Fold each of these.
Amino acid sequence: MNKKAAVVGAGISGLYACLLLEQQGYSVDLFEKSDVIGGRLNSQKKSGFILDRGFHVMQTGYQTASKVFNYQQLGCKPFEPGALVIRPSADGAKVWRFSDPFRRPIRGLLGAFNLFTSPLNLLRVGLMRLTISRVRDEDIFLQQSQTTLDFLRSRGFSEGFIQSFFRPLFGGIFLESDLRTDSRMFHFVFKNMSRGDMVLPKDGIASCAQQLFDQLGSTKLNLGVEVAIKSERDLQFQGKTLTYDLIIKAFAEADKVETRDVWTVYFSAPKSPLKANYIMLNSAVNQQTNIISHLAVPSDIQPNYAPPGMALVAVTVVGEDAKKQSLVDADSIEQAVLKELSQWFPDEIESWNTLDVQHVKQALPECVNIGQISHDSPQLNNTCGDHTTHGSVEGALISAQLVVTESLKNAP
Ligand SMILES: Cc1cc2nc3c(=O)[nH]c(=O)nc-3n(C[C@H](O)[C@H](O)[C@H](O)COP(=O)(O)OP(=O)(O)OC[C@H]3O[C@@H](n4cnc5c(N)ncnc54)[C@H](O)[C@@H]3O)c2cc1C
């Protein structure tokens, strides 16, 4: 008879745990307290637009994710490697383009002379890329830990370049204000960004979770149910105790894990404000009243994200940047963002309409001095989720792999 397992939580880590358990011959019951699968990989339709729950991309450089997801089948398309950087001011904004010199050599070379920063800083980016690319993925989290800011300083980057480039880019990825994130997480993300693309699937980020779910065979999904895990083998569900050979908890208890929050403001626009398929970084984030971290136009990458003839603009505000300005509700965030954007796009902003102001409260786990994480030896008690590794889709998948491998060693 098949062994029975229960997985609690249908985010990416829970779904992947189900797949791995099925491959080991388990019959699996999957319990999810909300009424959808995917957890933080969630999208909704609104007025013909696809709104991901918080601006989200997939990274094709992630090794485990590349095995789990079929990017081609998802219709994924990439952002340009590099970024636009805006320096807003009351007298008019100035925009620079940074192309990745390794993948766009000519544009990258031109960018080196664009006076945004000294060529020395750009050379250091290249050197850092070489050094980091030599470290094996599984060894990254065994390295010495420091803050990302200390690491960047130790690599000789100027304060100006750190604040105007690394700060908006990685602050927007890590969802924090001061680059305090563990430098090994920086290495991990930087390495993956250098070797792959940031892509968007055709039908929204939730379609990635759906694709993983579609790979499941016999797993029985129970939506809209909150179960209590009573012991290693017992669950309480609708007043009954259910006994399993193995139970995997694939979520974090909100009050036990420190997290970071993020605001995403979505606008409909008659046309894209950007001239190329880059993400636009705000070099002035966190100065005076600037709170926008970055802006992207998902419909430039995937026209499906907006109705024909329209554009979808996604503006990201890191939660702690907003809090510093005492902006804690949707109305004040929307007003502050609109005011800031009126300096960026003075001739266009009047024609934009707000579609949604989203606040994701538990967006990412805190990630400071996370200790040594070995991708080979989990420190987990039948628990997976990005909070047990690091806050990313890859971290969530790796956590599932680790916990299933470890649990099977101990399973009766
Ligand atoms: C706005 C935003 C942008 C992001 N951008 C990126 C990005 O660009 N690239 C990247 O790699 N990562 C990104 N991430 C991180 C990535 O989304 C997460 O790391 C990943 O989705 C976490 O998956 P998980 O399975 O660990 O947790 P979750 O997705 O949180 O899943 C946990 C599930 O458990 C359920 N649950 C909780 N309690 C119970 C219970 N008692 N019973 C049953 N079910 C329960 C929850 O409802 C949820 O569905 C982003 C996250 C956010 C929020």
Amino acid sequence: MTGNQEILGFLKTSIGRKWVVALTGLILIAFVVVHMAGNLQMFAPTADAINRYAYLLKSNSLLLWAFRLVLLTAVAGHIWAALSLARENRVAKPVDYAVRGRKSRLHVTLASVTMVISGTVILGFVIFHLLHFTAQVVDRSYVSLETVVDGKTMHDVHRMVVQGFSKPLISGFYILAMGLLFFHLRHGAASVFQTLGIRDRNLSKVIDAGSWILAVVLFLGFSSIPVAVLLGFWKL
Ligand code: HEM
């Protein structure tokens, strides 16, 4: 068997696809943590910080597109593997539960349904978010927002974010999506360790607490920005 055939064979097994969900999930978690940390520069003393940062990220287009390709592949792999597992889970569900196994099976099914629903809303959010702040097609006026930092003319990302979140409906949608991201990560981050076989009785509490803390920090970190805009923290 060639290496490629071995990989394809592994992906056909449910363990193989669980590994895909776990590893791509880790890539996506790393991205959201870094993205949140970068976004918190909104609170720096001057708007220059986040504008300089956004400018730097886009200054090498080869690196930017390589990074986007990795991110896109991770998202596609995560969705494909997770949906195929969820479908299999449903098909395999017996009509009559054995009394002993009933509770845990119901629990597993509920978790997987919740993950599919929260994941779908998060995907919808990401598509909207890309149209909003990256492609800037939701409000074309963002394109012409410019500022000068260190003698260089660049996009005024700080102003775009403040303008974007000054619409309560848009801010509300972001906060709702961050809430679903919280639920998705609280369950998902802990499951990664189970899939990779790192979870045992002693570690279990630490992993659950860690997933909880990660989900809370991300929720508060991301939501703080639309909330600050709605509270009038920055003047337009
Ligand atoms: C309040 C929360 C958030 C704010 C203020 C925010 C801000 C931004 C901004 C300003 C950009 C565009 C940067 C630029 O083109 O100059 C961006 C891009 C992006 N954001 Fe967010 N973001 C938030 C939450 C999220 C979340 C929760 C996710 C993922 C679940 C996410 C995923 C992305 C992605 C994938 C990009 C495109 C990166 C690229 O250009 O390759 N963002 N975000």
